[in-house]
Give the backbone structure.
Amino acid sequence: MIFYVALCYQIKRFFVGICILILSIAAVAPYTHAQYDYIDITKPFLRKIPVAVPVFKAINRTGQESEIGKKGADFLSEALEFTGYFSMLDRKAFLLDPQEAEILGTGINFKNWTVLGAELLVTSGVVIQDGILHIELRLFDTFQQKMLVGKKYTGTPEDLRKIIRRFAGEIIFYLTGNRGIFDSKIAFISTGTGKKEIYICDFDGYDVRQFTNHNSITLFPAWSGDAQWIAYTSYVKGKPDLYIKHVKQKRGFVVAREGINSFPAWFPGKFELAATLSFSGDQEIYLLSGEGKIIKQLTTSEGIDVSPTWSPDGKQMGFVSRRAGSPQIYIKSMDTGNVRRLTFQGNYNTQPAWSPLGDKIVYSSMDGAGINISVIGVDGAGAVRLTHGNRDNESPSWSPDASMIVFNSTREGASRIYVMTAFGTDQRRLLSLPGEQTNPKWSPSVGDSEN
Amino acid sequence: MKKRLWMFLVLLIVMPALIITTGCSKKQVQPDVSLIGTDADQYDAARQRALAEEEEAGRRALEEQRLMEEQRLMEEKRGQATSEQQQVIEEDVYFDFDQSVIRADAQEVLKKKAEFLRENPGASVVIEGHCDERGTAEYNLALGERRALAAKAFLMNLGISSSRLSTISYGEERPIDPRSDEEAWARNRRAHFVLQ
């Protein structure tokens, strides 16, 4: 099936460097029979798929094309490797000079790749004409000798990373049926300035920028479902108040009632959020409008009720309560109002985060040795510990496709942000910044303009 | 008020001193006036004046010393009073891990604070609730508030009006001891009082 995405860009050549909208024209995209059995993210054990990503072919053989071709292949390898689904084959072992190799399916000798163990192959050609970058990217199944995804992108050379991420997103969408993480961001707290402020970076740790500048204690960021808003707690006015801020525009709302105004969790698909308020003298979770007005009270138990998290359909809310004498995770049904206890192991289970797929809750639990991250089925079955060790691993947050979890850990001393797959594999540090980093929150997928 | 009292004390000491010194110099000056006319007289007069001035300077220095000593003593006394009051207010109320129950030792501390607040009806306090670094930030923010509220409730039971007691939780954000051991944790699990 050939499909065409209407282009909506205008470029003034002398404005090189100004981001232009990327238009993508699919060459041949066999979406008619997309197969998700390459990667089944519900399987508890992941076998990494060996992928070959040779350096992109410089069609006109210019120095700039070669440079972009090398960079593009590196970016794509990094992006694919980040997901934990793939093992990237060493380019040094490749049998062909990519500059001489055929990039179209008809001309590829797939045996050259299967003999190396590559199950997937990405080929690409780069053209730069009048400062405009044209890239064709294709994903092949080397054993079945067929093209799985083919895309053509146009932009400026500065758009390269964006283009590569978009194609990586297409690959993941083809293989898993999910849009993936490549257009998502991560908000977190860093003490780089000496004060706790919120920072935002891309899913892979690139492009870090400071989001708040309160010069105070700022905590607990939470993304709205459309990733347009971040709610958080800050002591700007001397006590923990709730701030609801637009990510790009300078507008927002403040909830500054007496006591605690904290732990925001956006209601799925609505401009509403749950948060703990203690103006009544008791900490209870309330549903608030996006403007910060109370819609209704959600918990009614004396004592600590914190850290709400919504099921993707909004029909249930997980939260932490001390009602049984120790912090444990509970689930409230919005339909019936019934509350049931989810965690029974250990006496300190907090920071629940409901999986975007709806089936699991990830949380942190403390024992004598430290804090570690576990997942548990929403039905209370199948609790599995994902981190191990005598340091603290806490504050887990799901990637929008539920394939990965971001968290903070003191495993290397100072607290840093780490990522792992949803099964606890491939744990690695996301970024290196001055100060300590805590409390990461993965944004929802912002979605492409083409969808 | 205290400043005015001090000024008064200074005047009280300085005034008689002035009277004494001026009285003395008058006595010395009188013959000086009658003996005017001869060089010897003038010499004597000058010598006597110099002597008198010297005497006066010495007396003044002594006075100054006495004044300074007095001031020092007063400050010391005042310092003792404020540091005693400060101690009562600043003594932290400690909690057990994951608890906001007021312990027996903490009750004694709070009783002293209640006494101070009764004696100083104009005083208000902010009660800060704090936690140790263990556990998670969200829960600790809530726990810190429970601790501050527990301390407040105890003082209210001792008759202190709630309007004089405000609370704020800092959770695990402001440890007083940055170390990571039992001793530091015990010191960090506290309700801290700040006089307003």
Remarks:
- The first helix of chain A runs from residue 63 to 82.
- The interface with chain B takes residues 196, 217, 219-220, 233, 238-240, 259-260, 262-263, 276, 278, 281, 283, 303-307, 320, 326-327, 348, 350-351, 364, 366, 371, 394-395, 438-439 of chain A (CB under 8 Å).
- The mean pLDDT of chain A is 89.
- The two ends of chain A are 17 Å apart (CA to CA).
